[in-house]
Amino acid sequence: xxxxxxxxxxxTADWVLPISSAPIRHGAVLVQAGRIAFVGAASAVTVTPGxxxxxxxxxxxxxxGLVNAHSHLELTLLRGFLEGLxxxxxxxxxxxxxRDLMSESVLLDASRAGIRxxxxxxxxxxxxxxxxxxxxTAMREYGVRxxxxxxxxxxxPAQCDxxxxxxxxxxxxARAQDTALVRTGVSPHAPYTVSRDLFAAxxxxxxxxxxxMAVHVAESPAEMLFVRDGMGPFADRLRAREIAVAPLAESPxxxxxxxxxxxxxxxxIHVIQADDRxxxxxxxxxASIVHCPISNAKLGHGIAPLxxxxxxxxxxxxxxxxxxxxxxxxxxGEARQATLLAxxxxxxxxxxxxxxxxxxxxxxxxxxxxxxxxIGTLEVGKDADLAAFPxxxxxxxxxxxxxxxxxxxxxxxVEAMLVTVQGHELVVNGAVLQRDETLPLRVERWRxxxxxxxxxxxxx
Length: 460
Prior knowledge:
Elements: E1 8-16, E2 24-32, E3 35-41, E4 53-56, E5 60-64, E6 66-71, H1 87-100, H2 104-120, E7 123-130, H3 134-142, E8 145-152, H4 160-175, E9 182-188, H5 196-209, E10 214-217, H6 221-229, H7 233-240, H8 252-258, E11 267-270, H9 276-285, E12 288-291, H10 293-298, H11 306-311, E13 315-318, H12 331-346, H13 354-368, E14 386-390, H14 402-409, E15 418-421, E16 424-428, E17 431-432, H15 439-459
Parallel strand pairs: 1-4, 1-5, 6-7, 7-8, 8-9, 10-11, 11-12, 12-13
Antiparallel strand pairs: 1-2, 2-3, 5-14, 14-15, 15-16, 16-17
């Protein structure tokens, strides 16, 4: 982790986007002892110059650090490996590779590579779902903010006690390493991998322990078929393992309500297959949602009802999901995709504005993770988690609105020039300060190993 921090630093930029208020032309943000002490016009800064470090960003936009409300850092090295597979084969191949090939050192390198990519894209906070716990270690190494939700699996009710005991042991070990920035949570994976009994037991325990929880839910038509009718590919797979399958509830969200999961106010991942009754259940419980528009589209699962989520007042953020299902950890790209799909769903242009999608990528994610009092907007007293992007790219010209330029013209084309977490500078002049010279070589070796595995599998 970088130690580059000053007690008082003034950042100035041609544009400052506080998110909680209107854009500021020729703005400034004063950081003092890791927190925001001033946000406003640069001309209004009245602090004395003594002991004040000034960073002039110039033709750039400065905004809150982006909050990636759903990632799988440990899968970063599977980018592009699962192309062309339907969701069942995608999951099966992923599970096999994860079990047979991905050692602890590989998972940690994958997490490190993912965090470096996140930082280059202005992401300061990640809500990561993990089987290994390696992302928690990598988050602490790099000084980012985040939650690592340790997954639990067990579709057979007979597995419930053993699965919960294993989860508890892992959580107790991981929580001993929690910091002010990085904390441990739990994730009963999904309705087709977790029994009703295990959902209920995990929810009850997480509430007693005040653990944050995340669940993949209402993601695909196959999941709906499994929960509502006890049919489809997920049911077939369990029956082949001699696990009894029967209808569980009228919908995946109803299942979470009946097992006490919603009462734990979890972060619900995807929520594509949900109607207004489901969304009312979520809103009434005070649960949150993370919208993953690119992953949803790439896997062919559909367009989530973002407009209805927001109409119900549900705290909603944006997530990239894993690069195994997305190929990029680019939250500005997610913001753009969210606006496009919202317009497509509504049949009207600008159904979700660029400003609104940026709010989802910052304040929305922070609120969804229960961190809205600390991050997500540029306001006095909040932690100084900042990201700045250059506006010098030709494709941003002529510039009329920095939010529109950032979301629609520059997403995927520019990287962050500055990233700070709690005042610590982690990216400066576009470079991640923490060095790892041999990581690219280790990634290449992993790619070669995967190629050999695939060739051997094909030969069989």
